[in-house]
Amino acid sequence: MLTADPDAASATSSSPQRRSPLPSLTGLRFVAAMLVFLTHSTMLSNVLSPMQPVNFFADPDIAKPLADFCEKAGAIGVSFFFVLSGFVLTWSATPGDRVTSFWRRRALKIYPNHIVTWVLAMVLFTAATPMHAWLPNLFLVHTFSNDPVVFGALNPVAWSLCSELLFYALFPLLIIPVRRIAERRLWLWAGGMVAGVIGVAAVTKYVRGGLDLGYELTLNQFWFSYSFPPPRLFEFVLGMILARIVAANLWPRIGLLTSAALFAGGYWLANNVPAPYFFSACTIVPVAMIICAGASRDLRGAGGWLTSRTMLWLGNISFAFYIVHGVVIFWGRSELLGGRTFDFVPAVGLQIALLLANVLAAWLLYSLVEQPVMRRWSRSKKEKQAVEQQAPQDAREKTAQNRPLVSDSVLVREAG
User: Fold this and answer.
1) Distance CA 387, CA 362 (A)
2) Cα 81 to Cα 343: distance, rounded to the nearest angstrom
3) What is the DSSP code (8-state) at residue 369?
């Protein structure tokens, strides 16, 4: 069961069975996905065709500075996702939820979209991939290998799902000690997780072996500090602890604007330090601040542009947007336009068209695969009956307390 023992429950007064929804975090999911999109859509070399650019700009004085500026955004966006995942899963976890039910929802959230894009990648551009590479990729364990043929195979953006899968597998165990942390020690533990993120970058220099990739990293160092799932647990657990901090009303009144300004400073720093420090170490604190500021804003009922209908819709399709964008960008760009580049105005137009094509592909994947699968199979018959029986009581509580209640479907959607 996803429950803490009685002592853990008494360690905090902020562990209700139902918590308010946090729509700003849904909007932030798309912001994180856009960071990854910007990196891949401005690259000077296509992953699938290294002699061809992805970047549309013909003028090298525009193309290279743009690629250099956006290069760090993707790694930071993934780090954002990892922290956000820990936060939302902890926020939405309810005592009494079965481990098997949790794993079922998480598997159905990830695998259908992954399998569709896996098939697309196999059909469109990686049919010759050897079995020892495509099989681990199919089951999302490929980044546990340091063989570049394995961890870099097929849909190139699927690597992060290996880390997410590890997070989901361990979450039922991790939530128990996280709930046991006394409120007065939460900040100390959060600082420990930040130190862990920085520590991973620091110890990477001691990892040996592999080809020199440039920017002072060998292949094995890149794999260990970026793709290998266990070191990324520091970001996920940080998100879990931050959820407890916000739930305990311990987050100071630091707004999104201040947090975004500090993020801009962290991004500047990331562009001026060597790898692997720019992967997440430079921005981990402002990323945490943005997530907590957004959640606190929702709890105050402040709303804002992140909770607009458009941002919520984009946030809901953000996982589909992320998992399909590698196919759209790397295969679609090469297939339709080859290596052609363009003057400024057409290049801007094509960049917007590429974004819209990715949004369309994400909406189709979300509407035809992700949403139907979640609606049909995310709950067992018993769980559906329990929800139907609980609904009248929830309606009465909502009316009596005049506050929104969060449904499991919303939590499943936001936890993606």
Assistant:
1) 29
2) 34
3) I
Q: Using 50, 70 and 90 to split pLDDT, how confident is the model at 402? A: very low
Whether omega for the bond prior to residue 276 falls within 30 degrees of 0, making it cis, is yes
> Hey, which residues does 217 pair with through a beta bridge?
214
Q: In the structure, what pLDDT confidence band is assigned to residue 397 with cuts at 50, 70 and 90?
A: low
Place of tokens 């363009």: 342
Q: Are 93 and 2 in contact (CB under 8 A)?
A: yes
Element (H, E) at 214: strand 212-214
Band (66; pLDDT cuts 50, 70, 90)? very high
**In angstroms, rounded to a whole number, what is the distance separating the alpha carbons of residues 128 and 101?**
37
Identify the helix (H) or strand (E) that includes residue 259.
Answer: helix 256-270
Helix axes 99-124, 131-138, angle to 10 degrees: 140
Residue 212 pairs in a beta bridge with 218
DSSP-assigned letter for residue 145: S
Q: Which residues pair with 218 in a beta bridge?
A: 212
Residue 67 Cα distances to 44, 45, 74, 218, 326, angstroms = 7, 10, 11, 22, 17
Give 102-115 pLDDT, tens digit per residue. 999 999 999 999 99
Contacts of 285 (CB under 8 A, 6+ apart): 194, 262, 266
Burial class of residue 403, CB neighbours in 10 A (0-12, 13-18, 19+): exposed
In the chain, helix, strand, coil percent, each to 5? 70, 0, 25
Cβ proximity of 95 and 17 under 8 Å: yes
> How far apart are the C-alpha atoms of 60 and 80, rounded to whole Å?
30
CB count, 10 Å around CB of 322? 28
SS3 category, 249: coil
